[in-house]
């Protein structure tokens, strides 16, 4: 899907803030599956959260990401920006369980060939009730994704550590440069 753009990278690196900026500029955005699942589990007392049952959490994140991908098809030729997606969840599940799910899912659920990663940014990283993992774990996640996306045929662009409007401009300008 050449109009489905993944925003991924380091947890706590400013993805959600950037997606809010893109939404404010009139673009369709899809909230991170993991954040939705954590909020749901915390309100219902469920255990499908990373700190209780990582495997169940990741399987649910894959299902939610697949549903998000399908629903986004209804936006026609509009740009749709995803805060993570199928590949992020499948990469994590494979890392946790060793189950080879990534290749099959990545070939079935495609996104724009350019993926944007936010780098580790310790100065803005914050743990909270929904993000309990350490900065070291967030960096390991970033490094894994930075390695995986190119192996699946995606071109990776790192977004600058800058104010949100500068980041949004960089992302949109890169998409224009690619001619799509």
From TrEMBL:
Query: In what residue span(s) does the NadR/Ttd14 AAA domain sit?
Result: 5-167
Q: Which Pfam families match?
A: AAA_28
User: Which SUPFAM superfamilies does its entry note?
Assistant: P-loop containing nucleoside triphosphate hydrolases
State the source organism's domain of life: Bacteria
Designated name of the protein: AAA family ATPase
Q: Native species of this protein?
A: Symbiopectobacterium purcellii
